[in-house]
Specification:
This protein has a domain of 150 residues. The strands form 2 sheets. It has an 8-stranded mixed sheet with strand order 3-4-7-8-9-10-11-12, sandwiched between helices. By secondary structure, the protein is α/β, with parallel strands linked by helices. Helix 3 runs parallel beside helix 5, helix 5 runs parallel beside helix 6 and helix 9 crosses helix 12. It is 35% helix and 16% strand. A hairpin with an 8-residue loop joins strand 1 and strand 2.
Protein backbone atom coordinates (compact mmCIF):
# COMPACT_ATOMS: atom_id res chain seq x y z
CA UNK A 1 0.00 0.00 0.00
CA UNK A 2 1.01 3.57 -0.46
CA UNK A 3 2.62 5.14 2.63
CA UNK A 4 -0.16 4.85 5.22
CA UNK A 5 -0.29 3.66 8.79
CA UNK A 6 -2.74 0.83 9.31
CA UNK A 7 -3.98 1.95 12.72
CA UNK A 8 -4.75 5.51 11.70
CA UNK A 9 -7.84 6.77 9.93
CA UNK A 10 -8.31 9.36 7.27
CA UNK A 11 -6.06 10.64 4.45
CA UNK A 12 -2.35 10.37 5.11
CA UNK A 13 0.59 12.51 4.16
CA UNK A 14 3.55 11.07 2.31
CA UNK A 15 7.11 11.78 3.31
CA UNK A 16 8.53 9.72 0.49
CA UNK A 17 5.88 9.41 -2.26
CA UNK A 18 8.12 6.99 -4.13
CA UNK A 19 8.06 4.49 -1.26
CA UNK A 20 5.49 1.87 -0.30
CA UNK A 21 4.93 0.75 3.27
CA UNK A 22 4.84 -3.03 3.05
CA UNK A 23 5.02 -4.13 6.68
CA UNK A 24 5.63 -3.02 10.23
CA UNK A 25 7.42 -4.88 13.00
CA UNK A 26 7.53 -4.25 16.74
CA UNK A 27 10.99 -4.86 18.14
CA UNK A 28 11.60 -7.55 20.72
CA UNK A 29 14.59 -8.49 22.85
CA UNK A 30 17.40 -5.98 22.35
CA UNK A 31 15.15 -4.03 19.98
CA UNK A 32 12.30 -3.70 22.46
CA UNK A 33 10.73 -0.25 22.35
CA UNK A 34 11.42 0.21 18.63
CA UNK A 35 9.01 -0.10 15.73
CA UNK A 36 10.28 -0.81 12.24
CA UNK A 37 8.30 0.47 9.26
CA UNK A 38 9.34 -1.57 6.22
CA UNK A 39 9.19 0.27 2.92
CA UNK A 40 10.17 -0.61 -0.63
CA UNK A 41 12.02 2.32 -2.13
CA UNK A 42 11.69 3.10 -5.82
CA UNK A 43 15.21 4.56 -5.75
CA UNK A 44 18.03 4.40 -3.25
CA UNK A 45 20.68 6.81 -4.59
CA UNK A 46 19.33 10.26 -3.83
CA UNK A 47 20.52 13.47 -5.42
CA UNK A 48 21.47 16.37 -3.16
CA UNK A 49 19.99 19.69 -4.33
CA UNK A 50 22.63 21.80 -6.04
CA UNK A 51 21.60 24.78 -3.90
CA UNK A 52 23.10 23.05 -0.86
CA UNK A 53 26.64 23.54 -2.27
CA UNK A 54 27.76 20.44 -0.37
CA UNK A 55 30.82 18.56 -1.63
CA UNK A 56 28.76 15.46 -2.36
CA UNK A 57 25.99 15.16 -4.91
CA UNK A 58 24.62 11.74 -4.03
CA UNK A 59 23.61 10.09 -0.79
CA UNK A 60 22.17 6.81 0.44
CA UNK A 61 20.01 6.56 3.54
CA UNK A 62 18.81 3.02 4.23
CA UNK A 63 17.03 4.17 7.40
CA UNK A 64 14.95 7.16 8.48
CA UNK A 65 14.63 8.09 12.12
CA UNK A 66 17.37 7.04 14.53
CA UNK A 67 17.47 5.14 17.79
CA UNK A 68 20.56 7.07 18.88
CA UNK A 69 17.94 9.52 20.20
CA UNK A 70 20.30 12.51 20.09
CA UNK A 71 18.22 15.40 21.40
CA UNK A 72 19.87 17.85 19.01
CA UNK A 73 19.65 15.74 15.80
CA UNK A 74 19.19 17.99 12.76
CA UNK A 75 17.26 15.26 10.88
CA UNK A 76 14.33 15.20 13.29
CA UNK A 77 12.03 17.40 11.13
CA UNK A 78 11.93 14.69 8.42
CA UNK A 79 9.55 12.68 10.61
CA UNK A 80 7.15 15.61 10.79
CA UNK A 81 6.40 15.30 7.07
CA UNK A 82 5.37 11.72 7.67
CA UNK A 83 2.80 12.68 10.25
CA UNK A 84 5.02 11.34 13.02
CA UNK A 85 6.40 13.56 15.76
CA UNK A 86 10.02 14.69 15.76
CA UNK A 87 10.48 13.62 19.38
CA UNK A 88 9.82 10.07 20.55
CA UNK A 89 8.57 8.90 17.14
CA UNK A 90 11.87 9.90 15.51
CA UNK A 91 13.73 7.91 18.16
CA UNK A 92 11.56 4.78 18.04
CA UNK A 93 9.59 4.54 14.75
CA UNK A 94 12.23 3.76 12.18
CA UNK A 95 11.76 3.60 8.43
CA UNK A 96 13.69 0.66 6.94
CA UNK A 97 14.21 0.51 3.17
CA UNK A 98 14.20 -3.26 2.98
CA UNK A 99 15.06 -3.41 -0.73
CA UNK A 100 17.99 -0.96 -0.46
CA UNK A 101 20.69 -3.44 -1.45
CA UNK A 102 18.94 -4.82 -4.53
CA UNK A 103 17.95 -1.31 -5.67
CA UNK A 104 21.52 -0.10 -5.30
CA UNK A 105 22.90 -2.98 -7.34
CA UNK A 106 20.47 -2.16 -10.16
CA UNK A 107 21.14 1.59 -10.05
CA UNK A 108 24.92 1.17 -10.14
CA UNK A 109 24.63 -1.03 -13.23
CA UNK A 110 22.63 1.56 -15.14
CA UNK A 111 24.64 3.15 -17.95
CA UNK A 112 23.54 6.57 -16.82
CA UNK A 113 25.41 6.15 -13.51
CA UNK A 114 28.89 7.72 -13.70
CA UNK A 115 30.48 6.18 -10.61
CA UNK A 116 30.31 9.34 -8.49
CA UNK A 117 31.11 9.52 -4.80
CA UNK A 118 28.23 8.50 -2.50
CA UNK A 119 27.97 9.84 1.04
CA UNK A 120 26.31 7.84 3.82
CA UNK A 121 25.36 9.01 7.29
CA UNK A 122 24.61 12.57 6.25
CA UNK A 123 21.01 12.28 7.44
CA UNK A 124 20.56 9.42 9.92
CA UNK A 125 23.21 7.00 11.12
CA UNK A 126 23.81 3.99 8.82
CA UNK A 127 25.15 2.01 11.79
CA UNK A 128 22.36 2.73 14.26
CA UNK A 129 20.88 -0.22 16.19
CA UNK A 130 18.58 -1.23 13.31
CA UNK A 131 21.66 -2.12 11.27
CA UNK A 132 22.40 -4.94 13.69
CA UNK A 133 19.04 -6.45 12.71
CA UNK A 134 18.82 -5.67 8.98
CA UNK A 135 22.47 -5.49 7.76
CA UNK A 136 21.49 -3.05 5.00
CA UNK A 137 24.58 -0.86 5.35
CA UNK A 138 26.73 -3.96 5.21
CA UNK A 139 25.02 -5.01 2.00
CA UNK A 140 25.36 -1.53 0.54
CA UNK A 141 29.10 -1.46 1.27
CA UNK A 142 29.48 -4.86 -0.40
CA UNK A 143 27.71 -3.65 -3.54
CA UNK A 144 29.72 -0.42 -3.67
CA UNK A 145 32.89 -2.49 -3.34
CA UNK A 146 31.85 -4.80 -6.17
CA UNK A 147 31.36 -1.72 -8.35
CA UNK A 148 34.55 0.01 -7.11
CA UNK A 149 32.35 3.03 -6.40
CA UNK A 150 33.86 5.63 -4.02
CA UNK A 151 31.99 6.37 -0.80
CA UNK A 152 32.21 7.92 2.64
CA UNK A 153 30.53 7.03 5.92
CA UNK A 154 29.73 9.28 8.88
CA UNK A 155 28.66 7.44 12.03
CA UNK A 156 28.56 7.55 15.82
CA UNK A 157 28.61 3.79 16.17
CA UNK A 158 31.44 1.32 16.79
CA UNK A 159 29.18 -1.21 15.03
CA UNK A 160 31.11 -0.13 11.94
CA UNK A 161 33.93 -2.37 13.20
CA UNK A 162 31.77 -5.40 12.37
CA UNK A 163 32.48 -4.50 8.74
CA UNK A 164 36.17 -3.78 9.16
CA UNK A 165 37.32 -6.54 6.80
CA UNK A 166 34.76 -5.45 4.23
CA UNK A 167 35.88 -1.81 4.47
CA UNK A 168 39.47 -2.95 4.05
CA UNK A 169 38.52 -4.73 0.82
CA UNK A 170 36.65 -1.66 -0.38
CA UNK A 171 39.68 0.49 0.38
CA UNK A 172 41.76 -1.74 -1.91
CA UNK A 173 39.60 -0.99 -4.96
CA UNK A 174 38.16 2.48 -4.47
CA UNK A 175 38.31 5.66 -2.41
CA UNK A 176 36.89 5.14 1.10
CA UNK A 177 36.68 7.63 3.94
CA UNK A 178 35.15 7.18 7.39
CA UNK A 179 34.38 9.88 9.93
CA UNK A 180 33.31 9.27 13.54
CA UNK A 181 31.20 11.83 15.35
CA UNK A 182 32.54 12.26 18.90
CA UNK A 183 31.20 15.43 20.46
CA UNK A 184 32.54 14.94 23.96
CA UNK A 185 33.99 12.44 26.41
CA UNK A 186 32.04 14.04 29.25
CA UNK A 187 29.91 11.26 30.76
CA UNK A 188 27.06 13.46 31.99
CA UNK A 189 26.65 15.27 28.68
CA UNK A 190 26.83 12.06 26.66
CA UNK A 191 24.21 10.29 28.76
CA UNK A 192 21.87 13.28 28.75
CA UNK A 193 21.99 14.30 25.09
CA UNK A 194 22.61 11.11 23.07
CA UNK A 195 21.34 8.26 25.27
CA UNK A 196 21.07 5.68 22.49
CA UNK A 197 24.70 5.90 21.36
CA UNK A 198 27.71 3.85 22.38
CA UNK A 199 30.09 5.31 24.93
CA UNK A 200 32.29 7.93 23.23
CA UNK A 201 35.44 6.14 24.39
CA UNK A 202 34.35 3.15 22.32
CA UNK A 203 34.13 5.49 19.33
CA UNK A 204 37.66 6.70 19.96
CA UNK A 205 38.79 3.07 19.98
CA UNK A 206 36.93 2.56 16.70
CA UNK A 207 38.95 5.40 15.16
CA UNK A 208 42.18 3.69 16.21
CA UNK A 209 41.14 0.31 14.84
CA UNK A 210 40.05 1.80 11.51
CA UNK A 211 43.32 3.71 11.19
CA UNK A 212 45.34 0.61 12.13
CA UNK A 213 43.48 -1.24 9.35
CA UNK A 214 44.67 1.34 6.84
CA UNK A 215 41.34 3.14 6.48
CA UNK A 216 41.44 6.92 6.51
CA UNK A 217 39.32 8.09 9.43
CA UNK A 218 38.57 11.58 10.65
CA UNK A 219 36.57 12.92 13.59
CA UNK A 220 33.85 15.51 13.86
CA UNK A 221 33.91 16.86 17.41
CA UNK A 222 30.26 17.67 17.07
CA UNK A 223 28.14 19.07 18.33
CA UNK A 224 29.91 21.04 21.00
CA UNK A 225 27.09 22.03 23.32
CA UNK A 226 27.28 25.43 25.01
CA UNK A 227 27.23 25.17 28.78
CA UNK A 228 27.57 21.39 28.71
CA UNK A 229 30.60 20.31 26.67
CA UNK A 230 32.40 23.53 25.65
CA UNK A 231 34.75 23.87 28.61
CA UNK A 232 38.40 24.10 27.66
CA UNK A 233 39.28 20.98 29.65
CA UNK A 234 36.43 19.07 28.00
CA UNK A 235 37.52 20.13 24.52
CA UNK A 236 41.14 19.30 25.29
CA UNK A 237 40.18 15.82 26.50
CA UNK A 238 38.30 14.79 23.36
CA UNK A 239 40.70 16.47 20.92
CA UNK A 240 43.73 14.81 22.51
CA UNK A 241 42.07 11.38 22.52
CA UNK A 242 41.13 11.62 18.85
CA UNK A 243 44.56 12.83 17.77
CA UNK A 244 46.30 10.08 19.71
CA UNK A 245 43.97 7.52 18.14
CA UNK A 246 45.44 8.59 14.79
CA UNK A 247 42.52 10.56 13.36
CA UNK A 248 43.44 11.96 9.95
CA UNK A 249 41.57 15.18 10.70
CA UNK A 250 39.52 16.81 13.42
CA UNK A 251 36.81 19.45 13.14
CA UNK A 252 35.10 21.15 16.07
CA UNK A 253 31.50 22.13 15.29
CA UNK A 254 29.22 23.96 17.70
CA UNK A 255 25.58 23.05 18.20
CA UNK A 256 23.36 23.93 15.22
CA UNK A 257 19.70 24.60 15.99
CA UNK A 258 17.65 24.92 12.83
CA UNK A 259 13.88 25.51 13.00
CA UNK A 260 12.04 22.53 14.44
CA UNK A 261 15.16 21.19 16.12
CA UNK A 262 15.53 24.45 18.02
CA UNK A 263 12.04 24.13 19.51
CA UNK A 264 12.61 20.48 20.41
CA UNK A 265 15.96 21.27 22.03
CA UNK A 266 14.59 24.21 24.00
CA UNK A 267 11.67 22.13 25.30
CA UNK A 268 14.16 19.49 26.46
CA UNK A 269 16.37 22.16 28.02
CA UNK A 270 13.49 23.65 29.98
CA UNK A 271 12.82 20.22 31.42
CA UNK A 272 16.37 19.00 32.02
CA UNK A 273 18.57 22.11 32.28
CA UNK A 274 16.36 25.15 32.95
CA UNK A 275 19.42 26.98 34.28
CA UNK A 276 20.79 27.14 30.72
CA UNK A 277 17.67 28.48 29.00
CA UNK A 278 18.47 32.22 29.34
CA UNK A 279 21.97 31.68 27.98
CA UNK A 280 20.64 29.83 24.93
CA UNK A 281 17.99 32.44 24.26
CA UNK A 282 20.73 35.06 24.27
CA UNK A 283 23.45 33.24 22.33
CA UNK A 284 21.11 31.83 19.65
CA UNK A 285 18.99 34.97 19.36
CA UNK A 286 20.21 35.72 15.82
CA UNK A 287 19.79 32.30 14.26
CA UNK A 288 20.72 28.64 14.20
CA UNK A 289 24.44 29.09 14.85
CA UNK A 290 26.59 30.72 17.47
CA UNK A 291 28.33 33.98 16.76
CA UNK A 292 31.48 33.41 14.67
CA UNK A 293 33.70 34.71 17.47
CA UNK A 294 32.32 32.08 19.83
CA UNK A 295 32.82 29.36 17.25
CA UNK A 296 36.37 30.56 16.68
CA UNK A 297 37.17 30.23 20.38
CA UNK A 298 36.13 26.57 20.32
CA UNK A 299 38.03 25.88 17.10
CA UNK A 300 41.18 27.52 18.48
CA UNK A 301 41.20 25.31 21.57
CA UNK A 302 40.92 22.14 19.47
CA UNK A 303 43.61 23.36 17.08
CA UNK A 304 46.05 24.11 19.89
CA UNK A 305 45.47 20.91 21.80
CA UNK A 306 45.72 18.74 18.69
CA UNK A 307 48.99 20.40 17.68
CA UNK A 308 50.40 19.66 21.15
CA UNK A 309 49.34 16.03 21.13
CA UNK A 310 51.85 13.22 20.81
CA UNK A 311 50.52 12.34 17.36
CA UNK A 312 51.33 15.51 15.47
CA UNK A 313 49.82 13.99 12.32
CA UNK A 314 46.19 15.03 12.71
CA UNK A 315 44.99 17.84 10.51
CA UNK A 316 42.78 20.36 12.28
CA UNK A 317 40.13 21.86 10.04
CA UNK A 318 39.25 25.36 11.30
CA UNK A 319 35.54 25.88 11.86
CA UNK A 320 35.42 29.35 13.35
CA UNK A 321 33.88 30.80 10.20
CA UNK A 322 30.91 28.43 10.48
CA UNK A 323 31.39 27.22 6.90
CA UNK A 324 30.04 23.68 7.28
CA UNK A 325 30.24 23.07 3.54
CA UNK A 326 33.99 23.65 3.56
CA UNK A 327 34.39 21.47 6.62
CA UNK A 328 32.47 18.66 4.89
CA UNK A 329 34.71 19.02 1.84
CA UNK A 330 37.96 18.97 3.84
CA UNK A 331 36.73 16.07 5.98
CA UNK A 332 36.32 14.33 2.63
CA UNK A 333 32.63 13.69 2.96
CA UNK A 334 32.62 14.54 -0.73
CA UNK A 335 34.40 13.24 -3.83
CA UNK A 336 38.00 12.11 -3.59
CA UNK A 337 39.73 10.19 -6.36
CA UNK A 338 37.82 8.56 -9.18
CA UNK A 339 37.17 4.81 -8.87
CA UNK A 340 40.45 2.91 -9.40
CA UNK A 341 38.85 0.05 -11.32
CA UNK A 342 36.02 1.88 -13.05
CA UNK A 343 34.39 -0.02 -15.89
CA UNK A 344 33.37 1.74 -19.11
CA UNK A 345 29.73 2.08 -18.08
CA UNK A 346 30.82 4.11 -15.04
CA UNK A 347 32.35 6.65 -17.37
CA UNK A 348 29.05 7.45 -19.12
CA UNK A 349 27.75 11.02 -18.69
CA UNK A 350 25.60 11.42 -15.60
CA UNK A 351 21.97 11.80 -16.66
CA UNK A 352 20.17 11.31 -13.35
Amino acid sequence: MRWTLADEEGPQGSLFPEEDLVDRHVGIGEYRGLEFLHVRAQRIINEVPSASHLPFHWTINAYRGCSHACVYCFARPTHDYLGLNIGSDFDTKLVVKVNAVEKLRAELKAKRWAGDHIAMGTNTDPYQRAEGKYHLTQGIVKVLTEAANPFSILTKSPLILRDLDLLRKANDVTDVRVNLSIGTLDEATWKATEPGTAHPRRRVEAVKRLVDAGIECGVLVAPIIPGMSDGEDQLAEVATACAEAGAASVSAISLFLKPGVREHWMDWLRSERPDLVPMYERRYARGARLDKREQQTVSDVVRRVTAESRSGRTKVIPTGDGDIRRVAREQRLGPGRRPREATPEYEQPRLL
